[in-house]
Amino acid sequence: MRYEIFAIIIIVAFPFISQAQESVDIGEVEVRSSAEHESQEDIGAFTTVIKPSELDTKSKSVAEAISETVGVDSTSLGGEGSLSTVSIRGSSSEQVAVFLDGVKLNSSTTGSVDFASIPPDSIERIEIIRGNASARFGTDAIGGVINIVTKKVGAKRAIDLKLTGASFETLHTSESWREPRDGWDFVLSHTHESSAGDYTFRSMTTTLNGTPVGPARIFTRIHNASISEDVLTKFNFDIAEKLHFSLSSDFYWNDKEVPGTEEETTLLYPADPLEAQEEIFRDTAGVKLTMDEFFTKNVLWETGITYLFDHDHYTNPSPPVGNPIDVTYMENSPEYYSQWIHSKDWKNASLSSTFRYQYSYDR
Predict the structure, then answer these.
(1) In this structure, are residues 225 and 197 in contact, taking their beta carbons and an 8 Å threshold?
(2) For residue 37, what pLDDT is reported?
(3) For 61-106, how does the pLDDT look when each residue is reduced to its tens digit (9 = 90+)?
(4) CB–CB of 94/111 below 8 Å?
(5) pLDDT > 90 fraction of the chain, expressed in percent and rounded
(6) From CA 179, how far away is CA 232, in angstroms rounded?
(7) Are 96 and 87 in contact (CB under 8 A)?
(8) Distance CA 276, CA 225 (A)
């Protein structure tokens, strides 16, 4: 169990400028921006925000898009659907806290997050925070924080359909429905990804116990197929003018073949069959209650409960060494939090403070 209470106070002063010039009344002027509004809480000097357009045009995966940011590196252990991890400023992947709609994804077993299990089509934006961000996300992120925000409802109804095909029998589809209503709204999104993954490669000089026994050859990377499904649902309801309720759930399922090492393909197969298989099931859910004016107009109050369920089943009936493997990792991580955000302009200064209480339990 972990109890955390922490607070941060930031004071930003602005100089007072006085000009003795004649003023002219030009009436009321309204300025509007089509860009998405980001609050001061969302953007800081060490924060980078990746928008959906950058995910679509720059990279095909979440890990690749994040790695294009200064100070961020990604590591992928293969092709489509293979394990991908991210580190910030030289830290390990276990030292980067990753959140999906406020739910922490870091595994209690490995400490890291597989970014291949996060489909880009369900993402509204990605916030990359280099350095400490304890007032908003907790105290255990040494390298930084990656906060993933899923799709939100826009001003108008939107129905999106996407179909993409690629080499190695790769298929990617996504469908989403965003419905704004007076006093409530919802988002429903589904993403499918599948690939045979059987690509060809040139082996290194064939060796046996360190002794060269043959030249490099062309092989096919077999037993590398994967299929995944992701379903995102979000519902928002206005209880009163200043009181809002939201519910979200992101269900992810992945079943993939594990091809093993190069030696298993080039030296041991087919005498030793490739049968390793991994199935992942994950669900992140959250309930949140927000009050815009908590007894006074300068205080925002938010409380909620988040829950992560992670189930990972790995089997290998015929490993190259040792007995058959059949192991299951399962994690349950509920969390409760409550936070108060106070903001007020006073003369030539702007005062912003956050107090947050957080209770987490990992099993």
Answers:
(1) yes
(2) 37
(3) 788 888 888 888 888 776 666 778 888 887 888 888 888 887 888 8
(4) yes
(5) 33
(6) 14
(7) yes
(8) 11
DSSP calls for 183-221:
TEEEEEEEEEEEE----EEEPPPEEETTEEEE---EEE-
Report how far apart, in Å, the C-alpha atoms of 117 and of each of 27, 61, 276 are.
Answer: 54, 10, 19
Beta strand 277-291 with 299-316 is: antiparallel
Instruction: Name which of 60, 323, 116, 81 is nearest 223 in CA terms.
Output: 81
Q: Are 256 and 294 in contact (CB under 8 A)?
A: no
Length of the chain (residues):
363
Task: Give the three-class secondary structure for 310.
Answer: strand
**The tokens of 318 are what?**
């015929």
Residue 189, beta-bridge partner list: 176, 232
Low-confidence ranges of the chain (pLDDT < 70): 1-45, 52-60, 78-81, 132-140, 205-208, 210-214
The answer to whether the bond into 270 is cis (omega within 30° of 0) is yes
Q: How much is the CA Rg of the chain, to the nearest whole Å?
A: 25
Q: Are 44 and 129 in contact (CB under 8 A)?
A: yes
Query: What pLDDT sits at residue 180?
Result: 93
Is residue 200 packed enough to be buried (19+ CB in 10 Å), middle (13-18) or exposed (0-12)? Answer: exposed
